[in-house]
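Supplementary Methods S3. Complex input for the adenosine-5'-triphosphate-bound model.
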Amino acid sequence: MTAALVAEDVAKSYGGVTALDGVSLSVDTGEVFGLVGPNGAGKTTLVRALTGTTTTDGRVSVLGARPEAIEKSRIGLLPQSFSPAARLTARELLAQYAGLYDDARDPDAVLADVGIEGDAAEQWYETLSGGQQRRVCVAIALVNDPEVLFLDEPTTGIDPAGRRDLWTLLEGLAADGTTVFLTSHSMAEVERLADRVGFLRDGRLVTVGSPRDLIEAHGGRSRLLVETGDPADESGDEFGAAGDGRESGFEFDVRDVDVSTVGGRLVVEGVGPREIGDVVDALEASGVRFESLTWKQPDLEDVYLELTGESFEGGGAGVDAGSAGVDR
Ligand SMILES: Nc1ncnc2c1ncn2[C@@H]1O[C@H](COP(=O)(O)OP(=O)(O)OP(=O)(O)O)[C@@H](O)[C@H]1O
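Predicted complex, serialized as structure tokens:
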């Protein structure tokens, strides 16, 4: 497969601040590449390097050419901060941007794709809600039907239903062969959309891989989160990696589980779906009273926390796909 995007040893400093410190990567034609990393890691700077909107050291190529030399109609860019004319309606804005290209898509159809229809399409941009404004900005990036689409935190401010609609739209574009380079702080978004994910930290690409491979390598084991409602569990004390749970005071007749307390929860790691009942029995046999149980498979958020050195905090809040809660 041919590479749509190539970065070789790309570096950028702002005064004494190193934003990119020798980044090399290649994105195949038709691939969705997700770039994640903490605030200030250099994601926006890399998007700007790849789109030729800032100068850098190193080499960048987009569709086989330098980004500045590429026909603008072949590229779509949604910058992180983008403010189109405030006193044009969504329709007028789309028509304006469509007019920049010889062969643009129908503005109304693009607006409909991002969920802006009816009254919202006739309102001044400045009177739309933040999420509606972001949708219009996404539409502007799509109006030229680009071969390569750069989206810098596209769904920030968009409500959950709109976010999922946008994911479906992006999946459709990717299925039709559009190359997508996406930055996001939503691990759910990246896990769902990206074929490969790059983790950027302090201007360096620390790892790249498919969500599945990264979760396998860095996500840890599936775990059962036990809300005991017991303030003693707030201590964060490790119960130790007792394979049978004995050091925690529980008689776990379940092999290869690690028990600890994190963030006020009892965390039993290494619990597969079939062992949930055994662990519940063991908890009850040990006299542990609990308010709820949540089973959580490792996901990209766990990978992120591991790779950025942030501690796992029992993360039940991040549980969506692939988890089951048992309330008592
Ligand atoms: N125009 C600029 N002038 C000076 N410093 C800058 C400029 N743009 C970025 N930086 C610095 O470069 C570093 C990388 O910034 P960048 O915006 O690329 O990070 P990011 O990963 O996109 O962050 P976020 O997740 O907060 O959007 C930061 O330390 C930032 O302060």
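The pocket of adenosine-5'-triphosphate is lined by residues 14, 17, 19, 37, 39-45, 80 (CB under 6 Å). The first helix runs from residue 43 to 50.
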